[in-house]
Design a protein that fits this description.
Layout: H1 2-27, E1 45-47, E2 55-56, H2 57-78, H3 86-107, H4 109-112, H5 116-131, H6 147-178, H7 188-234, H8 243-281
Antiparallel strand pairs: 1-2
Helix pairs in contact: 2-5, 3-5, 3-8, 5-8, 6-7, 6-8, 7-8
Length: 285
């Protein structure tokens, strides 16, 4: 009797575990969800694959952003009026923001005039290339691949080195940056290599990496939210479909946040570029 009872208990327990296992397999089954991967940032070539002229989806997004940017400013310039309309007012607000809140705040009005066009171009270009990450049918930032951030960082790098050498001469520029005044001479053994890394390597590297990393993270987050939404609504079991409401809500929330990040990163990149140029022009560092 004891053996029979034990056998029955084992059978019931086994059936219960099997039923429980089947239930959870049904509830959490996944036959279609694919998480985003870094491969999204290495799309298949559309034209000229395997050459230096390779044209892929990200290149296409960059071309679209550049064309739209140029068209907007050309149209705004040709139709400029003394009393601006809404479109002109937005353009003027952007230009005034860069001039007053970035350039003049750091460099002053007189010194900043020379670099205003460069820094304004830098700001609006990064904004347009960043914002494509939330534009329907584009859905990826033009700056999410490291090549373009590197080009922009090198642009700033060449600018602040050229302007510094032009004002102080090569020797004066190196002395002012690598041997800061007022420091005991033995300290230069430690300080000079650090200053060299900061001026010639870390400044451009951090500019490029900060911009690309933020855009990559934003892209992956949005893709994850909306891929999960598609899975929950159209492929998941009935019990999980309601979770799609949470994922799509998170997707729209992160879209708004990504717009903020796109603008913030353009601001940070431009303000740091302004600081670096200003530092290269200072008589004492």
């Amino acid at each position: 009797m004891l053996n029979l009872a034990a056998t029955l208990m084992t059978a019931v327990s086994s059936d219960s575990e099997g039923a429980s296992k089947n239930f959870f397999e049904w509830l959490f089954s996944s036959n279609g969800f694919h998480a985003p991967s870094i491969a999204d940032l290495n799309p298949e070539p559309l034209l000229f694959g395997g050459t230096i002229f390779e044209f892929n989806r990200i290149t296409f997004v960059r071309v679209v952003a550049a064309v739209v940017l140029i068209a907007i400013f050309v149209i705004a310039a040709r139709n400029a009026k003394v009393v601006p309309g809404r479109g002109q007012a937005v353009i003027e607000f952007i230009l005034d923001f860069v001039r007053v809140q970035i350039v003049e705040q750091i460099m002053g009005e007189e010194r900043g005039k020379k670099y205003l066009a460069f820094l304004t171009t830098l700001f609006v270009t990064i904004v347009f290339f960043n914002i494509t990450g939330v534009v329907p049918f584009l859905n990826i930032a033009g700056t999410s691949l490291i090549g373009l951030p590197i080009i922009m960082a090198l642009w700033v790098y060449v600018m602040y080195l050229t302007e510094g050498v032009r004002k102080h001469g090569l020797g004066g520029f190196l002395k002012g940056n690598l041997f800061p005044p007022g420091v005991p001479k033995p300290i230069y053994i430690l300080l000079t290599p650090i200053e060299f890394l900061q001026v010639f390597i870390l400044r451009p590297a951090t500019l490029a990496l900060r911009l690309a990393a933020n855009m990559i993270a934003g892209h992956m987050l949005l893709v994850l939210c909306f891929a999960a939404t598609q899975y929950f609504f159209f492929e998941a079991s009935l019990a999980l479909k309601s979770v799609g409401v949470l994922s799509i809500t998170a997707g729209f929330a992160f879209t708004l946040f990504e717009i903020f990040v796109a603008l913030l990163q353009a601001y940070v990149f431009t303000i740091l570029s302004t600081v670096y140029i200003n530092l290269s022009l200072e008589d004492e560092h």
